[in-house]
């Protein structure tokens, strides 16, 4: 566990230091109120930590629910498409049509269907994550050499054992890579979605500060969004090292 913690903290610390250096250079070069000094922003961030935690918690909960739902839906469907040629021929063309569409375009549709509250925002992120996950899982299953299953069958292995010892180890690296990409896109989309019919969320906090021309507060919100993404990515890294030790 200590090795996992070190492997998470060291890259995060390096990235944090580099971000501060670049930020400070931009502050000096551009010399405008639009980009406040890092020290000033950190001071504001910690003085207003309690309300920021509430906004971060709201965003975190929305993304977390969307990720859990995407895993529950995307994993079994992706595995089924990869294992069944009939389903592959039927559903893969549909995925190819839907996947390239910018999902944020569906936000008005989800608002009409599910209302202006949290459900429409979660559905939008689910829509982003689930198709990426399905395609990654499908490709992971297809890449498994067929003789692996024949060996398992020759030992009279049950179906659940084939999935446990062959399919899951093969798709897990792709699942984690897919989640990293999807969560990054989801956070960007959530920033847009949280500006409608809500008073909690990092996206709402940032845009509210921008409209007030309070750029220190705005950058504090950007820091909070970055921290939220880092928490997700760090958690995925730890899970990946724990569940895929052979990589």
From TrEMBL:
<feature type="transmembrane region" description="Helical">
    <location>
        <begin position="52"/>
        <end position="82"/>
    </location>
</feature>
<keyword id="KW-1003">Cell membrane</keyword>
<feature type="transmembrane region" description="Helical">
    <location>
        <begin position="12"/>
        <end position="32"/>
    </location>
</feature>
<comment type="similarity">
    <text>Belongs to the binding-protein-dependent transport system permease family.</text>
</comment>
<keyword id="KW-1133">Transmembrane helix</keyword>
<dbReference type="Pfam" id="PF00528">
    <property type="entry name" value="BPD_transp_1"/>
</dbReference>
<keyword id="KW-0813">Transport</keyword>
<feature type="transmembrane region" description="Helical">
    <location>
        <begin position="94"/>
        <end position="116"/>
    </location>
</feature>
<dbReference type="InterPro" id="IPR035906">
    <property type="entry name" value="MetI-like_sf"/>
</dbReference>
<dbReference type="InterPro" id="IPR000515">
    <property type="entry name" value="MetI-like"/>
</dbReference>
<feature type="domain" description="ABC transmembrane type-1">
    <location>
        <begin position="56"/>
        <end position="240"/>
    </location>
</feature>
<protein>
    <submittedName>
        <fullName>ABC transporter permease</fullName>
    </submittedName>
</protein>
<feature type="transmembrane region" description="Helical">
    <location>
        <begin position="185"/>
        <end position="207"/>
    </location>
</feature>
<keyword id="KW-0472">Membrane</keyword>
<dbReference type="GO" id="GO:0005886">
    <property type="term" value="C:plasma membrane"/>
</dbReference>
<feature type="transmembrane region" description="Helical">
    <location>
        <begin position="219"/>
        <end position="239"/>
    </location>
</feature>
<keyword id="KW-0812">Transmembrane</keyword>
<dbReference type="GO" id="GO:0055085">
    <property type="term" value="P:transmembrane transport"/>
</dbReference>
């Amino acid at each position: 566990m200590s090795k996992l913690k070190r492997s998470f903290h060291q890259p995060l610390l390096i990235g944090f230091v580099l971000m501060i250096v670049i930020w400070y250079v931009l502050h000096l070069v551009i010399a405008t109120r639009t980009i406040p000094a890092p020290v000033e922003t950190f001071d504001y961030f910690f003085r207003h930590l309690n309300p920021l935690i509430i906004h971060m918690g709201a965003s975190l909960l929305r993304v977390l629910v969307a990720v859990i739902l995407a895993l529950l839906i995307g994993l079994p469907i992706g595995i089924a498409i990869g294992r069944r040629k009939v389903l592959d021929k039927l559903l893969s063309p549909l995925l190819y049509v839907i996947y390239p569409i910018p999902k944020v375009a569906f936000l008005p549709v989800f608002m009409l269907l599910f209302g202006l509250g949290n459900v429409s925002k979660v559905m939008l992120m689910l829509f982003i994550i689930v198709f990426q996950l399905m395609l990654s899982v499908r490709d992971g299953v297809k890449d498994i050499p067929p003789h692996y299953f024949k060996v398992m069958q020759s030992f009279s292995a049950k179906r659940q054992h084939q999935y446990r010892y062959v399919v899951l180890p093969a798709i897990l690296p792709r699942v984690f890579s897919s989640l990293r990409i999807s969560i990054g896109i989801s956070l960007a989309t959530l920033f847009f979605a949280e500006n409608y019919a809500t008073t909690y969320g990092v996206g709402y906090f940032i845009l509210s500060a921008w409209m007030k021309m309070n750029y220190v507060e705005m950058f504090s919100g950007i820091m909070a969004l970055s921290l939220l993404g880092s928490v997700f990515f760090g958690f995925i890294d730890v899970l990946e090292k724990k569940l895929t030790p052979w990589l």
